[in-house]
Structure formats: structure tokens, C-alpha cells
Design a protein that fits this description.
The protein has about 500 residues and is an alpha/beta fold. The protein has 3 domains: about 120 residues, no CATH class; about 160 residues, Rossmann fold, CATH 3.40.50.10490; about 170 residues, Glucose-6-phosphate isomerase like protein, domain 1 (Rossmann fold, 3-Layer(aba) Sandwich), CATH 3.40.50. The protein contains 20 helices and 16 strands. It has a 6-stranded mixed sheet with strand order 11-12-16-15-13-14, with helices on both faces. Helix 4 runs parallel beside helix 10, helix 5 crosses helix 10 and helix 13 runs parallel beside helix 18. It is globular and about 60 Å long. The two termini are about 40 Å apart. The relative contact order is 0.14.
Length: about 500
């Protein structure tokens, strides 16, 4: 495990590292000291430091889940689907990609993505339903849908759905009463810090991954990361990414060989932990070669901050670095005060007769909506050009797609071309998953985001048993709710609603 800074960045970060050593930040962190982030954060942090404890306590769960995997495999059940949002899905997705192991992650409400899974052959499938709070709307809806799909195929859901949640949640109670297998997390570990607990362990072990190796890697790193030393890699990384903030607050996360998708996990951790009270670090995921005056790069050799570690080490390393960076920024790393606003807006829309009461205008078959400041041009290219004109100074673009993630490759290509055109960093997020990660930064962080929201009109429907709305309606409410909250905060938002066939024309407009 090694973290190196460029000489210029090391000079800027040196005082922060020295102060951390002097105040014994690392050892106090691993001793569970809740006062490290100030008085206002003390109540929250006193209930959110379970992730610093020894990881050996999770070793028996690895063995227990392995027995369940063997039992299922003997029945021919070998395909694993994970239903979860944010911290309950991003880490397992990264771990599976690292080990090149099949794991289908369902963190969407888009019918185009859900429909084929729900209507497909589930005879060899086990579904993990993961929710720390036990009340996540998307995950509850997915659980209901898979219960219905299993029953439709003559399969008992209690034999094919495994629940991961915190103790005494409504999900814990209802799942136990219904006879589901339940694995419990630790309520003192927040969702984005839960990679190295049951929320990471259960789906990955079921998929055939050696999670004991990952846990042992992290456990070995604890001693190093808890040391009050100027060589502590967690302190060096945290100081490196925060040393020049707020002027330099765009963190370009370059993808490293062997760790595909790891930036998506870091994005949530850093954005949701630091993005509040008008400050924060803006993670930008991808192999970005561009450099901006207000950005620094993190990745392999040639980056401003180079990181070398195993997967298990990386998880704990970034957690330590993030909470130290938050101390530097003066924010509480464990709360997410602005996430609830979009949820409330979506809930309010779901309770109205018409989920789309807002006024939209039509341009060449596209339906558009915007906050004040984006002119109603008669041609899509001109509207998009208007939106692009807001990307200047210290701003960043955020392309927020409520669509099928299977088109992620095309979206990434388009966003990279957009970046080259506007010469500003641009993030790409798929809804509603980004609402559980970067959504906090968008609303609570620095008011630098310029938002393009894309709603891909579903080609099919997907029902939610027991609800008076389907997945398409839920998705629309989430998208409209988020756009409303952003616009009410005075941020620039353009929403483009398009059919799947229209997406190439939108990509062309972004790239030109």
C-alpha cells in the first residue's frame, strides 16, 4: 500500500500531514473518537464509527454464506442478482468486476433494464435484497417485483431471496416473519462505509468470490492506517485531495488496471461525505487526460496522486482518507442532509394524480424542461449549446441519465467528447443510483454544477406488486423531483425526455 504526491502537491499537503500526526488523528480515529469533526458532528459520528473496528468479526459470516452458496449450488442455483442502492450495491459491483465474476446488480427503476431480468428464466437465480435502512423505496419495489416474478414461475420466493439489512429495521422484522434468510449488518456503519461488512460479503460470496482474502487484506492494512506517522498512506491521500480546496476541488479519478469501476465507489464515498454546507470535493470518474486549473488527478503512475494497493487495502485506505479530508474541509463525513430533499419531492409527485404536471416544450420530437436561464431555442442543438454555455469558470457538468445502464458505453463516449468540447470536467450518473451518492454533493456541495438530465422513455412496463404505481412512474417521479430540487436551489438544469431511438441525435448534439 503506497500513496505518492507530486512534489508541488506534497508541499501543499505537508502541513496537513504534520498536523494530523501531531494531533494523533489516525490513532484517535481507530480508537473511535467521535470528536474529530467538531461539536456539531459529534452526535452523528459517535454512531457511525463501527467501520474502524477489527474486520475479523466478519470472518464467520463468510463461512456461513459459503454454506448457503454450496446449498444453492447443489440445487442448480448459481446466478446471483443484487438489489440495492448506493452503499449496498456499489462495493459488490466493484468487487465482482475486480474478480471478473458474474454478479447482476439491480440499482435501477428503469423498465428497459428491469423488464428483461424479471421476465427471464429465474430457475437458477438467487436474489439478494440489501438495504441498511430497511426502507429504501427502490429496493423495496425491486423485492416486490422479484417476489412476483418467482411466484409466476412457480418458485417459492423465501427460498430464493436473501435479505441483508441492519438489526430491527422494518425489513428485518418483515423478512424474518415471512421466513427469508436474513444477514444483519452493523447499525454503527453508514452505507457508504459498509463495503467490508455483510453488505459486501453476502452477494460476493454467493457469487463465488473469496471475500476472506479481501477482508484479510484490509485487516492487515488497519495497523498501518492507524499509525500516527507522516508515512501513513491514508493521511497522505486525504491531505492530497483536500490540500488545495476550495480552489482545487475537482478530483479526476483515473481508472487503474485491475480495478474496473472502483472510481464509482470512490465517487459515492467522497461526494456524499464531503459535499455539504456549500463545500466539497467533486469526483469525476474516468480515464480523463485533461487537466484543469481547479482539478487534480488520482490513479496510477503519472497522476498527481498515485495509489498502489490491493482491493481490500483500497477500501479502507479511501475511507480513512475521506474522513480526514472532511476534517480538513470542516464538514461531518457521516451525514447526508440534502439526500432526503429529492426523496421527498419524488414521494410528493407519486401522491399526485399526475406525476408530470410541469410545463414542457417540444423540439423536434424531444420534450424539454429547464430552469430559468436556459433559453427555449427552436432546435435541439441550439438548446444544448445554450446549456453548454453555462460551463465556464469553476463549474462542472453533470449528465444525469434516467435510462438503461446497458447503454453506459455510448454515454461515456458522448460525455468524454462533451468534455473535450467545453473544456470542463463532466460527470456521468445513472438515476436513481446517483441520488444515493453524488446527489448529496449536487445539492449540498459547492454551487458549481450545471445539470443535464436525460429521461429515456421506457419501451415497456414493469409492475410493482402491491403499489399503485409502476416502475416507469416511479422513475419519472424521481427524475422530476430531483430536477425540481436542483432548480429551486438556483442551479442550471435542462431536462431532455427522449425515446431510445432519439438518443443518438442527443449524443450528437452533446458532442458537437
Amino acid at each position: 500500500m503506497k500513496v505518492e504526491l507530486t512534489s508541488q502537491l506534497a508541499s501543499s499537503a505537508g502541513a496537513l500531514v504534520a498536523h494530523a500526526v501531531e494531533t494523533r488523528f489516525a490513532s484517535e480515529l481507530f480508537a473511535g473518537n467521535p470528536t474529530l469533526w467538531g461539536t456539531a458532528a459529534e452526535d452523528e459520528s459517535s454512531r457511525r464509527l463501527g467501520w474502524v473496528h477489527s474486520l475479523e468479526r466478519w470472518y464467520p459470516i463468510v463461512e456461513e454464506v459459503q454454506l448457503v452458496r454450496n446449498e444453492l449450488a447443489a440445487q442448480g442455483v448459481t446466478e446471483v442478482v443484487l438489489c440495492g442502492m448506493g452503499g449496498s450495491s456499489l462495493a459488490p459491483e466493484v468487487i465482482a468486476a475486480h474478480f471478473q465474476t458474474a454478479l447482476t446488480v439491480v440499482d435501477t427503476t428503469h423498465p428497459n433494464q428491469l423488464g428483461p431480468i424479471l421476465s427471464g428464466d429465474l430457475s437458477a437465480t438467487v436474489v439478494v435484497v440489501a438495504s441498511k435502512s430497511g426502507g429504501t423505496l427502490e429496493t423495496d419495489s425491486q423485492k416486490r417485483a422479484f417476489e412476483g416474478a418467482f411466484r409466476h414461475q412457480g418458485i417459492n420466493p423465501t427460498e430464493r431471496i436473501i435479505v441483508v439489512t441492519d438489526p430491527d429495521t422494518l425489513l428485518h422484522q418483515s423478512a424474518t416473519e415471512a421466513g427469508y434468510r436474513v444477514f444483519l449488518g452493523d447499525e454503527t456503519i453508514g452505507g457508504r462505509f459498509s463495503a467490508l461488512g455483510p453488505f459486501g460479503i453476502v452477494p460476493c460470496v454467493l457469487a463465488g468470490i473469496d471475500m476472506l482474502e479481501v477482508l484479510q487484506q484490509a485487516q492487515a492494512a488497519r495497523g498501518i492506517l492507524a499509525t500516527d506517522s507522516p508515512d501513513n498512506p491514508g493521511i497522505i491521500l486525504g491531505a492530497g485531495i483536500a490540500a488545495q480546496a476550495p480552489r482545487v476541488n475537482k478530483i479526476i479519478l483515473r481508472e487503474q488496471t485491475g480495478f474496473p469501476g472502483f472510481g464509482d465507489w470512490v465517487e459515492q464515498l467522497v461526494a456524499e461525505s464531503s459535499g455539504k454546507e456549500g463545500v466539497g470535493l467533486v469526483p469525476v470518474v474516468g480515464s480523463h487526460e485533461a487537466r484543469y486549473d481547479d482539478s487534480l488527478s488520482v490513479g496510477g503512475t503519472g497522476s498527481d496522486v498515485s495509489v498502489q494497493a490491493t482491493l481490500g487495502e483500497l477500501f479502507l485506505l479511501w475511507e480513512v482518507a475521506t474522513v480526514f479530508a472532511c476534517q480538513v474541509l470542516g464538514v461531518n463525513p457521516f451525514d447526508q442532509p440534502n439526500v432526503e430533499s429529492a426523496k421527498s419531492a419524488a414521494k410528493a409527485l407519486l401522491e399526485t394524480p399526475d406525476v408530470a404536471p410541469r410545463e414542457e416544450w417540444q423540439v423536434g420530437g424531444f420534450s424539454l424542461w429547464s430552469s430559468p436561464g436556459v433559453a427555449r431555442e427552436p432546435v435541439l442543438d441550439e438548446v444544448v449549446a445554450q446549456w453548454k454555455s453555462h460551463l465556464h469558470g469553476d463549474r462542472y457538468g453533470a449528465v444525469c441519465v434516467f435510462g438503461n445502464q446497458k447503454l453506459a458505453g455510448a454515454w461515456k463516449q458522448s460525455v468524454q467528447a462533451l468534455e473535450a468540447t467545453v473544456q470542463r470536467p463532466v460527470t456521468l450518473g445513472f438515476g436513481p443510483r446517483f441520488l444515493h451518492s453524488t446527489g448529496q454533493l449536487h445539492k449540498g456541495g459547492p454551487a458549481q454544477g450545471v445539470f443535464l438530465q436525460v429521461i429515456q422513455v421506457p419501451d415497456q412496463t414493469a409492475e410493482i406488486p402491491g403499489r399503485d404505481f409502476d416502475f416507469g412512474t416511479l422513475m419519472l417521479a424521481q427524475a422530476h423531483g430531483d430536477a425540481t430540487v436542483l432548480a429551486n436551489a438556483g442551479l442550471t438544469v435542462l431536462t431532455v425526455t427522449a425515446s431510445t431511438d432519439q438518443l443518438p441525435a442527443l449524443w450528437a448534439a452533446l458532442e458537437s
